[in-house]
Description:
Blueprint: E1 6-8, H1 12-24, E2 29-33, H2 41-45, E3 48-51, H3 64-74, E4 78-80, H4 90-98, E5 102-103, H5 108-114, H6 117-126, E6 134-135, H7 141-151, E7 155-159, E8 168-171, H8 174-192, E9 197-201, E10 207-215, E11 221-233, E12 236-242, H9 249-265, E13 270-278, E14 284-290, H10 297-304, H11 308-316, E15 333-340, E16 342-343, E17 349-350, E18 353-354, E19 357-359, E20 366-370, E21 377-378, E22 385-393, H12 396-409, E23 411-413, H13 419-426, H14 429-433, H15 454-473
Parallel strand pairs: 1-2, 1-4, 2-3, 4-5
Antiparallel strand pairs: 6-9, 7-8, 7-9, 10-11, 10-13, 11-12, 12-15, 13-14, 15-22, 16-17, 18-21, 19-23, 20-22
Helix pairs in contact: 4-5, 12-13, 13-15
Amino acid sequence: xxxxxxxxxxxxxxxxxxxxxxxxxxxxxxxxxxxxxxxxxxxxxxxxxxxxxxxxxxxxxxxxxxxxxxxxxxxxxxxxxxxxxxxxxxxxxxxxxxxxxxxxxxxxxxxxxxxxxxxxxxxxxxxxxxxxxxxxxxxxxxxxxxxxxxxxxxxxxxxxxxxxxxxxxxxxxxxxxxxxxxxxxxxxxxxxxxxxxxxxxxxxxxxxxxxxxxxxxxxxxxxxxxxxxxxxxxxxxxxxxxxxxxxxxxxxxxxxxxxxxxxxxxxxxxxxxxxxxxxxxxxxxxxxxxxxxxxxxxxxxxxxxxxxxxxxxxxxxxxxxxxxxxxxxxxxxxxxxxxxxxxxxxxxxxxxxxxxxxxxxxxxxxxxxxxxxxxxxxxxxxxxxxxxxxxxxxxxxxxxxxxxxxxxxxxxxxxxxxxxxxxxxxxxxxxxxxxxxxxxxxxxxxxxxxxxxxxxxxxxxxxxxxxxxxxxxxxxxxxxxxxxxxxxxxxxxxxxx
Length: 497
């Protein structure tokens, strides 16, 4: 298949990430942008760009008709959906393929099957992969409540077509279930246009492990080992690492082989992630399959030395996988911190506005995937992502130390951010021992400036002072040789009230 010009149907750091690989491959790229993204980094990096309408996501990046029209206008023969918006939408994939455009992703049929969590469970069960006990199928609410009590609490209530941590809640009693059911169904309708739900037995403090797979059109499937994505907040990943410090060689082999088996069973083509929950006794259970590239792929690229975007493009061209399983290395250790414009002291409330100062970290084996720059204005209409900062080392300890150095160098002014929080997390004793799980952030250990963790408070205060000093140093000098008045005091601070 010809892939001569790629339209990237996404924004921010994932769009810039895709565009950079396309540049290495000498493939021209087209950026699309909403009104708020007219001057965005991904627009600046692409060879061509085209507007797709107003800022709300429903009328832009997720509108397949506008994306197809944009591709035809600029002569793009391929669309890469990135890791959000329409990336897992079977309807969008089918429309793009029917328009004669190459779709970089699994087929619409696979997206329909694996995007339905109940169907995905059935696939896993059919090949002998363990799943958690569940209540599935449509039934009256009273019957559902009876079945829930038989299964026992705690339970997870999930939207059948849910993704990105939406349409999911932890339920600890029948009263909570009765109260939460309408809310989860409502979220499912709003986000996925489908109110089907199911109940699944909840594990206490599990580990969330992902296995990256790649599959070509000739039935070849390989895995890129596992990532540990256990540190989460509201079912959204905060920090990832690869390989997992919790996973033994025997468990790694078993889970990776299970992921490949599931992909082969459904005839998967492209990149995807098979996700598992693992209990404290190293028993693992299939959770779901994410049929797109994920925001955590950087740590997998570090430990394998591979470019997953390049693999995606080559597979879309109809090429065979370039490597066999035995040739894929597992080298060293990588950690990724998600740097967001949000305030941990205020329950991670998102922050928006103009970035008035920016200094990003650099150095040996440091990577910073970002879609922002100094002077850029973060829109409240989109996720408050600043960058995905990752480090690599020959050992986990070396990767942790490099991450600590990188976080100490990172400065952002004008918006509140979670850099001091990530630094406190990096220094947390449980994290340094590798004893993390999905409940690690539930107890609010970083606290507040008045009552919270001293290291977090000190780090936040230090980051404030460093920002002030650097912004003072940038003040213009007046005619009398004195610094001119500055508005640095009005700029956003680092996680301070």
